[in-house]
Automatic annotation (TrEMBL):
It comes from Domibacillus epiphyticus. The lineage of its organism: Bacteria, Bacillati, Bacillota, Bacilli, Bacillales. InterPro entries: Acyl_CoA_acyltransferase, GNAT_dom. One of its GO terms (molecular function) is acyltransferase activity, transferring groups other than amino-acyl groups. Signal peptide: none annotated. Residues 1-151 form the N-acetyltransferase domain. It holds the Pfam family Acetyltransf_10. This is N-acetyltransferase domain-containing protein.
């Protein structure tokens, strides 16, 4: 079941963080970079993020979440995290499908991921995202910006 999460509540932000850290640790190992900014979040930074969060609940437990912000007229996905013990169960796909249908319909959707994160690139491509740009951060991480124009699909 997918539902909106109130990340401004401390207990909810703590749940998000408890899932986020191990999820991004796996990504860090895949891409060989442990400086992913979300690895350094705190309950407070999540509460103050300004993002909208949706969670995937499995047996009442948070198994994954997606967050986004409105940026320059586009819906920009900031986080997509699945519990490492539940990878390959379709949770990320369900959250993306829900997001595209329920929240981002008729809009441009953007997301960035580590260029070395082939699993994420493949997942977003499956949903019709295309690669727009590849660049390096100041910390030396290679990033790919992907976009899906849902306005063109209407």
């Amino acid at each position: 079941m997918i539902e909106r999460l109130n990340h401004k509540e401390e207990v909810v932000a703590a749940e998000i963080l408890a899932l986020q850290i191990p999820g991004y640790q796996v990504e860090a190992s895949w891409i060989g970079f442990d400086g992913i900014p979300h690895l350094h979040d705190t309950v407070q930074t999540i509460m103050e993020s300004g993002e909208t969060f949706f969670g995937f609940l499995s047996d009442g437990e948070l198994a994954g979440f997606l967050s986004y912000k409105e940026e320059d007229g586009a819906a920009f996905i900031h986080r997509l995290v699945v519990h490492p013990g539940q990878f390959h169960e379709g949770i990320a796909s369900e959250m993306i499908a829900y997001f595209l249908e329920e929240e981002a319909q008729g809009r441009i959707v953007k997301v960035t991921t580590g260029a070395q994160n082939q699993a994420a690139r493949k997942l977003y491509t499956k949903f019709g995202f295309h690669e727009v740009e590849e660049y390096s951060t100041e910390a030396g991480l290679e990033i790919v910006l992907m976009e899906k124009d849902q306005k063109a699909e209407q």
